[in-house]
């Protein structure tokens, strides 16, 4: 979800609720402790330089049980960050701590914001010799015999 999308959704909501993909809800007394932009410049394992820009929301579960972030307040925080930090309309990444700090994508299911699981990937599979499983033929993907290309 891009920043512009959440800005369109927030005015239509009575409450801001986040949940994980497994259905577990972030406690309703959470705080958004940061809104920022992360600029990541890196080189992949194939030697290609890359850049990513994301908008970062950090959720924090405090012991402040009387606190409830309202949609208008979150919209104000977002607009302030756009003005003060010159944040662009990028994909949102959410930091939320369970066992450790997790990084999640963000979607909206019509009622709640859903923290979606993110995975790592090799961006230079052709340079690393890693087969693209989606391009493997069906007969090869159903077996893992030596020379089949699946291992």
Describe the structure.
The structure is a single chain. The chain has 151 residues and is of the alpha/beta class. Helix content is 20%, strand content 32%. It is built from four helices and six strands. The protein has helices spanning 3-9, 71-85, 125-128, 138-141, and strands spanning 18-20, 30-43, 49-61, 92-97, 101-108, 113-117. A six-stranded mixed beta sheet has the order 1-6-5-4-3-2, with helices on one face. The longest helix is centred in the middle third of the chain and has 15 residues, at 71-85. The protein is globular. The chain starts with a helix and ends in a 10-residue tail after the last helix.
Layout of helices and strands:
Layout: H1 3-9, E1 18-20, E2 30-43, E3 49-61, H2 71-85, E4 92-97, E5 101-108, E6 113-117, H3 125-128, H4 138-141
Main attributes?
single chain, alpha/beta, six-stranded mixed sheet, 4 helices, 6 strands, 20% helix
What's this entry about, in short?
The protein has 151 residues and is of the alpha/beta class.
What's the overall geometry? globular
Q: Could you give the order of strands across the largest sheet?
A: 1-6-5-4-3-2
Number of beta-strand segments:
6
Please summarize the sheet with the most strands: 6 strands, mixed
Output the radius of gyration: 20 Å
Helix content: 10-25%
Number of helices: 4
Beta-strand residue percentage: 25-35%
Low-pLDDT residue spans: none
Mean pLDDT: 87
Structural class comes to alpha/beta
The end-to-end distance, rounded to whole angstroms, is 34 Å
Order of helices and strands: HEEEHEEEHH
